[in-house]
Amino acid sequence: MDTSLTAPSAPAGTRTTGPGGRRGFGTLLAVDLWERFSFFGMAAILVLYLTAPRARGGMDMAPQSAAAVFAAYMSLSFMAGLPGGWLADRVLGARRAVLLGGSLIGCGHLVLAAPWAGTLYPGLLLVVAGTGLVKPAMAAMVAEISGAGPGRREAAFSLFYVCIQVSALVAPVVTGLLAERIAWHLGFAAAAAGMLAGLLQFTLGMRAFGDVGVRPPRPVDRAELRAVLRRVCVVAAAAGAVTVPPAVLGVLPVNAVLAVLGLATVGLPFAYLRALRRLPADGHLTGAAQDVRDEPGRRGGTAPGKTGAAAGDGGPTDPGPRARLGAFTAMMAASAAFWMIFAQGGSALSLFADRHTDRDLFGFEVPASWFQSLHPLFVLLVAPFLARLRAGAWQRVGTPAKFAGALAAAGTSFVLMAVAARLAEDGPVGPSWLVLVYLLYSCGEIALAPAGLALAAAVAPPGSTSRFLAVNGLFGAVGVVIGGQLYRLTAVLPLSVYFALVGVVVLTVAAAVTLGAGRLSRRLAVD
20-243+254-281+320-524 adopts what CATH topology? Predict the structure, then answer.
């Protein structure tokens, strides 16, 4: 893995100062460590809190409803990245977006930590709004600091992705112990403390960024901003008119709201990318994709100074922006199947750990939330082996092949869960089933997540990196919300049948990506 971040090549108009690349990357890493601590800490305990009986301080929800709420929270966090990325690109700049978003996340966790009725949904909405600002802005700053070229960019995202797993490993242990053994709200308070520490780290380290993230790359003009504000006010007023009166009267149909949200989540990324297809079909590469094609020795690349078809003028080696966008859409849709399984680690697998797993360890009952630490633990253990491969064979593996491998691992994990659920019908099963399942989809995440981020950055037009990274997150939201709604099938299907059904569907998607890998690679023209 190429982890050199010293003095990277900066985009035009961006200045990096001295060793700012490395120091700036370190500051971003520290901030994301704390932000991920708050995120994973709350994710580990949210479903358990929602399903815990009121006598234990919980919400006493049915498992299916709790899984749907968790999925809605996760999908909204992804969806919020689209307006958050727009604000970072056009209004705030990445740096102010991180500061504002981190403040909202911290406030949201503090609201959840308050031991009062009615704090659940306001607190979750604050966390969602903050996450939508922080994640695309942070990713854009990482992409900018890492420099041009897919190898450098994917290496930076890979290192970033692996290092933050330290906080993902520790967070469920800390918040889970506080929440399950003392008080649920104390677990949320620990998540708030983590985010506030991240904000402090970011504020103290801002000088390391040079000019990166100070200003929006494509500032919005006042007329466009006024038009956007008018549309936002109309949508907000309509949503408020529909939801606020029933909520005040206590008759708001939560399941209906979740269903509408699910439909909007599934449709939004496709509608957004369809709008992008209206870009002029001039056949020219833009943004990071040009960096890829200009690298000598890369498939489809040319030596400096070459012109013509091989240089991206719409010839046979250049599929054109619309074809590339279509292939990108197909890849993102396939990734949604992976995230459909991945996101159920905090709901379906967490409930399985709580209700169907023998958690006794030498007389100590392991908190169910601690199983959430298995995923980051495996990322940390497996990533060094993958890093060695990145320097050799893995670097020659195309993005579609990486996606297909990740999908195959995720699908297999749920087939194994089907076996475990069948055995659990006769009594609690050993923890080795969950250990193996987390290992499989952790390997899948290491393969898919950095490749997906790098792909989104590679196809993004200049000044739109944050929004294309947000599109990557939107398809994650599609998977999350579909998984949350599918879990409702467990009310009528045996748990083993549910796991088997979802696993087979994802394996089918993996097979489809494998069969179309060659065509996808030619259309993407970034491998």
Answer: Growth Hormone; Chain: A; (1.20.1250)
